[in-house]
Amino acid sequence: MLMRCVNVSKSFKVGRRRIEVLKGCSIAVDEGETVVLFGESGCGKTTLGRVLLMLVKPDAGRVFFKDTEITAPTREFRKSVQLIPQNPDEALNPRWRIYDSIAEPLRVHGLAETMNEEFDAVAAIAEKAGLKEEHLHRKPSELSGGELQRAVIARALILEPEFVVCDEPTSMLDVSVQAAIVRMLMDIQKRTGVSYLFITHDLELARAIADRMYVMSGGRVTGELRKEELRELSRESLIRCELPRVSARF
Ligand SMILES: Nc1ncnc2c1ncn2[C@@H]1O[C@H](COP(=O)(O)OP(=O)(O)OP(=O)(O)O)[C@@H](O)[C@H]1O
Ligand SMILES: [Mg+2]
Q: Would you say residue 187 lies in a domain?
């Protein structure tokens, strides 16, 4: 397995109360796989995705990347895993040109020796993400929602990561733009073999892209479905979101 977590728990303190957001979650993603994390709003999907990337430290449980336990993320780990956040504002500095936001990971990791090399790398990934060169010179407030999402994707993919958490990257877009962006992510996967943990509460989308799907509810992973099982779900159960309860294999 490329990425996995075992029995992860996390609670947050809110005022004087403590809320348990993750209750013993275990999931795994293999090389080249697209695994969907599906569940209702507030069930803990984003938090679990962030725990895998060690952006949130779990209270209990373990995270493994290529069979090595990650306790404190190393530079190499930071380079190999990326997040496409639910909200583009989290990844783009409003005062920077899009070019600089996309180039930043290269600069942080010292991966472009000359300005020309940097420009070529930014232009190449921006093109793959479906951005035009003119977009690169603009600030985030001067782009549409779809263009912003493409910029965030370009930034996440510029270091050629092995594992990406795509946190509802298209939920704010209309259906045609959503389809184009998902197709682009799948094309990049075919070319590079990157693995995705794709968070969504859109079951039709999940069915279209998932190799496997985990179902979450109330901070727990309540089920795991293989591609064939997802395909066999009837339209009615899809519409009503009635998922068979498949016990997690952990
Ligand atoms: N930093 C935090 N402090 C306090 N509570 C938090 C924090 N982060 C998340 N929560 C709470 O944890 C729960 C799970 O949040 P999370 O964002 O993981 O859900 P989600 O499944 O991604 O939901 P959505 O589909 O709406 O994005 C929510 O009740 C949320 O309010
Ligand atoms: Mg979320």
A: yes
Going by alpha carbons, the residue nearest to atom 4 of ligand 1 is 12
The atom of ligand 1 lying closest to the CA of 219 is: 14
For residue 23, count other CB atoms closer than 10 A to its CB.
Answer: 16
21 pocket-lining for ligand 1 (C-beta < 6 Å): yes
- Residue 250, CA distances (Å) to 28, 161, 214 in order: 10, 27, 12
Q: Which ligand is nearest to the CA of 42?
A: 1
Q: Name the band, by pLDDT with cuts 50, 70 and 90, for residue 193.
A: very high
| Domain total of the chain | 1
Q: Which CATH number does the domain housing residue 29 bear?
A: 3.40.50.300
pLDDT, tens digit, 9 for 90 and up, residues 64-122: 999 999 999 999 999 999 999 988 888 899 999 999 999 999 999 999 999 999 999 99
Let me know if residue 147 belongs to a domain.
Answer: no
Distance, in Å, from the CA atom of 212 to the CA atom of 181, rounded to the nearest integer, reads 20
Nearest-CA residue for atom 11 of ligand 1: 21
> Which domain, by its residues, includes 211?
3-87+161-240
Q: Which ligand has the nearest atom to the CA of 50? A: 1
Does pTM surpass 0.85?
A: yes
Pair of tokens at residue 117: 């090399």
Asked, for residue 73, whether it belongs to a domain, the answer is yes
On whether residue 214 sits in a domain, the answer given is yes
